[in-house]
Structures are given as C-alpha cells and as structure tokens.
Design the sequence.
C-alpha cells in the first residue's frame, strides 16, 4: 500500500510539472494551424510529416525545421501553401527564424550544413514564377546569407 501511495504521488508530481511546461514552437505552430483550419467551415486539420530534426549549426544539439507546407485543411487547399510558398520555421537554440519558401533542402558542403530555400521570384527582384534561391548557413544561432535580413525572428503564427 505504501508503494501505491508513493507511485500515485510521483505520477501527480510528473503530471503537474508537464502541465506547467512551456509549449514548444512546433506545438504552437500545430495548434495555431489547427485553429485556423477549424475556423474555415469546421475544416479537418492534418499536420502531416511536418517536423525535421537536424543540427543546423553543428553544435551537437538537435534543431527543428517546422514545414507548414505539410499541413493540410479539408476546407482550404491554399491555407498553408499560398502562392508565395509555405512558412518554414527553423528553431535553432532559443531562436526561431521564419521564411516563406516553395521548397527547401539541406546540403552538406564541407564542414557546413546549408539550408537551401526555393523562394518566390520577387525575393530576387524577378517575376514570381521565375527561379530564386537563398542559401543559409547558421553561425551559432544566427542564420547567415547574402540576404539574411529576409529571415525574421518570430514564433510560429
């Protein structure tokens, strides 16, 4: 009986600490996307395979890429992937950086891990459908590229 009381007390303590934990950037992005979808005629939300774990800055810690192009809503085909691309959030250390991208991939180049973003043409000063790319390398928790100011520090939605 003594062990059951101890186990129940430990479970209560564990649950109360979870209840007070801050939600992660990924949890916030998914919850806000779900709410946005549900407001459109009660849409059904699906997060898909939206999360990629990697080490963008090569510090030995896992960083996250949250790809909203993987989200879908039954009542809106373009809610998460509009004409300009979907939002991609990179959570590196304590910072979140957000881009609007049509596609992305990670390229290993020597000692660097490069986040290559396919952007809307207007980011490069051309017509929207024309090809435009940005290559981003993380130095510590800071994204670095020729157009680094386009990366905004923001929390999802």
Sequence:
């Amino acid at each position: 009986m003594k062990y059951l009381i101890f186990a129940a007390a430990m479970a209560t303590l564990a649950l109360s600490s979870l209840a007070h934990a801050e939600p992660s950037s990924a949890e916030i992005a998914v919850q806000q996307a779900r709410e946005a979808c549900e407001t459109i005629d009660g849409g059904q939300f699906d997060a898909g395979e939206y999360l990629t774990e990697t080490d963008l800055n090569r510090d030995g810690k896992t960083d996250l890429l949250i790809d909203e192009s993987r989200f879908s809503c039954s009542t809106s085909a373009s809610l998460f992937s509009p004409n300009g691309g979907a939002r991609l959030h990179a959570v590196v250390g304590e910072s979140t950086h957000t881009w609007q991208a049509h596609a992305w991939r990670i390229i290993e180049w020597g000692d660097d891990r490069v986040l290559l973003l396919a952007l809307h043409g207007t980011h490069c000063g051309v017509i929207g459908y024309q090809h435009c790319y940005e290559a981003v390398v993380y130095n510590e928790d800071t994204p670095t590229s020729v157009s680094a100011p386009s990366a905004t520090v923001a929390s999802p939605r």
In short: The chain has a mean pLDDT of 83.
